[in-house]
Each structure stands twice: as structure tokens, then as C-alpha cells.
């Protein structure tokens, strides 16, 4: 059967009619033909076009190569200004497009250049290089041109500038960071000499001593160390590029401060130990404050947390150790596995101790140890200091109050036969025992009254008569009346 015809370019099928991406390219169907029309051909239209015919029996295709000829143009090139210096080789570059391949020429101040001991011209694909070994008369404007039979590209000009050392930095200043350290700052040079600044040189000196110098990178803080406390220094700074150094800036004077205690060590060790029973504490050597370091004092302790939260529940006593001033690491040993610790470190000198720096770390877990089994088990040989929560404090206050009330009530019961305890005894003890106790008590009172009344009667007896003194019977018990009557009958 009659085949279906298609055009493809760069593995993409072209649709019938103008192409959506570029309407200069159009596919025109005709009877048993399929035309491909390209209007205003451009260099990007060059390439392989494939005509494809397909029916039930299979597919056939034919390759068409299209080449577009055009005048050259410069696509990329060196910057308009390039810096170098005498004897320093430099490359000037022109990257061009053109078909057929154009001829590239280089000119210096209107004179066409050829290969010699100062200039070398090479070409790789569509890139042309001019290698220049500058002399005193090599600096100036260079020109690159490209041409073929269809035309000539506009000239491209490159200025080769003789690089020099940069100008001096401005607004230099110095600030004391510690009694033995100072930081120098400045403004960049106004002129870099045609080359990038590669560094800065700090010159400093104290009265009566030769100057010293130290170099820094452009993005590096200029911190000068090893200075003397309570001493005046003079600082200046120079910039450097590939040519050399600039003149030094104006001098700036700085009086260093007095000696002091060391600065705080900065701990650098992580918060997790790699072993279950030890921890390597590391730190940066601090500034000594202008005096030799004495020693490092290290103390650490285990911390206990509540089982179901991260709240602090207690801690062990501090373990105190020392390390010499020559080291910046120390091993803490005999620790408990899977436990939280805190460690503090201070540096010392003759004037005292630095501020404390501390970190918390966690020891690794033993492989045989269940997770969390060690966290809440304090050592029996060490004192545990516990912190109480608010509910625990309230409970303790209530318990103390109740104990005081019980003690007061017990005192009232023993001394005065009253109080809550006395009430309970009276209410719940055996009533019969209480009744017997009341009868016995009454008999004791009757006996007492009887003895007293008899003594009173005896005292009033006369040889011839008996005088009986009758008192108010309402205030006497019944037993008293009976005794008085019996005594009258006997008389």
C-alpha cells in the first residue's frame, strides 16, 4: 500500500505544516511527496535530516545532509582587558563560528602578528589562541579578526595591561583581643595593580625591638599572637599580588592590656562516648592571659533522669581530677555504661582560674546490657543528690504536719487525759471495765468521807455528854449520814 511519509531532524519527527518551535521550517504534504521547506536558513539548521516511509510491509528511510554557509562571527573571547607583566606568559583567546572555517588573524597596534619568539598562534577547533611573552613594548591593544569567502567578522579588541603591585591599604586599625593577641583590620587597596590580591603582610614592633612580620590570606582574620601584656605595639599592613607588595599603610599604635586569668577553654569533644566505661574529653588550648598556664582542673559526675521524662532526678558527687597544661585531651575512666554525665573544665595560671566550660555526654551501652537498665541504678558507694518535684515537696510537708499533730495529741492523752486518742479510748474500750472502774472509785471516796467524819466526832466528845455537830447534809454523800446516825446510837 501507499506509505506514510515523515521528516525527522535530530531524532525528532517534524509535523505537517510550520513547526511550533520555529515557523521558518515547514513540512508540506504533496501527492506521493512530502516537501521540507526552510526559509532564511541559519547555522543551527545544519545537520542530518531523515525522510521516513512506512507501510504494512515495513519502513524505508533516506538521509539528507544540509550544510549552511555563512560569514564568521566571534562567539566568545577573552575579557576586554588582560593583565600581565614582563616575562609572564599570557594567552589571548578568540572563539568564532563560520562556514567554511574562517581564517583568524591577530594584530598589535595595526601590525599583523606571526609566530616568533614573543608570539605563538594556535587553533583548536573553533578556538584561536595568541600566546604572548610580554616585553616592555608588548603592552597595549591587540585585535582579533576572522573571515571566509562569505564575509568578515567584526574585529575584537583586547587590551594587554602591564600589571603592577597594588596600592597600599587604608584605614588600618588594631584591637587587643587578649593581653597577648591583637586583631588588625584595614580597607582594601583602591588599585589592585591589575591582578587579584593574594595576601596581606602585617608588620608590628614594640619599642626597642626589631619589627616582625606575619602574612595572612585575603579572607583570613589578621590575628597577631605572641605579644607581651602591658606593652605598646605599632602595626602596619601591606597588600600583595602576583607582582609584589604594596607600600605599607600608616602606622597604628596599640597598648596591650595587663595580665589576667586564662580565658575559658573551648570543649571540642562530642556529646556521645564511643565506649561504655570511658570518655575522651578534648578542648582547644585557651589564651593564657599573658601568663604561663598552670594546669587544667576537670570535674565530672553522673546525672540521673526520671524514668519517663528528661527531668533531672539526681546526681552523684563530683569527681575531681587535674591535667597538665601541655595537653588538650583527657580520658575519663571507670564510668557507668549507658549513662548521662556532665563534665566541667577550667584553666589556671598564677592569677587564678578561667571561667568554667561544661558539656554533657552519654556513655555507650554494653552489648549485653538491656537498653535503659543502667540509667536509674545509682552506685551504692556514692552519694546521690536528688532533686524533688513540686508534688513530692507538698507530700513531705503534709506528712510532717500529720506527725506533729499525732505527737501533740499523744502528749495531751498522757498528761491531761484528753485529746483525740482519749476520745477513741473512751468510745471504743469495753464499757464494763469502765463501770467497774467507776464503782471502785465511788467506794474509795466513801471510805475517805467516813474516816474524816469519825475523826471529827471524836474531837467533840465530852466526859458527860456527846455533842454532835450536824453540817449541811446536802454537801455530804449518803454514806456520811449513815455514819453519823450510828455514832449517836452508840453514845
Shape: flat
Mean pLDDT: 83
Structural class: alpha+beta
Oligomer: single chain
| Radius of gyration based on Cα positions | 56 Å
Distance between the termini: 174 Å
Strand content: 35-45%
Secondary structure: number of strands: 34
Tally the helices: what do you get?
4
Q: Which bin fits the share of residues in helices?
A: 10-25%
Unreliable stretches, pLDDT < 50, 5 or more residues? 374-382, 451-491
Largest pleated sheet: 7 strands, antiparallel
Short précis:
The protein has 491 residues and is of the alpha+beta class.
Describe the structure.
There is one protein chain. The chain is of the alpha+beta class and 491 residues long. 16% of the residues lie in helices and 41% in strands. It contains 4 helices and 34 strands. Strands 27, 28, 29, 31, 32, 33 and 34 form a 7-stranded antiparallel sheet that branches. Strands 9, 11, 12, 15, 16 and 17 form a 6-stranded mixed sheet that branches. Strands 2-1-6-7 form a 4-stranded antiparallel sheet, with no helix packed on it. Helix 3 packs parallel to helix 4. The longest helix is centred in the last third of the chain and has 29 residues. It is flat. The chain starts with a strand and ends with a helix. The C terminus is likely disordered.
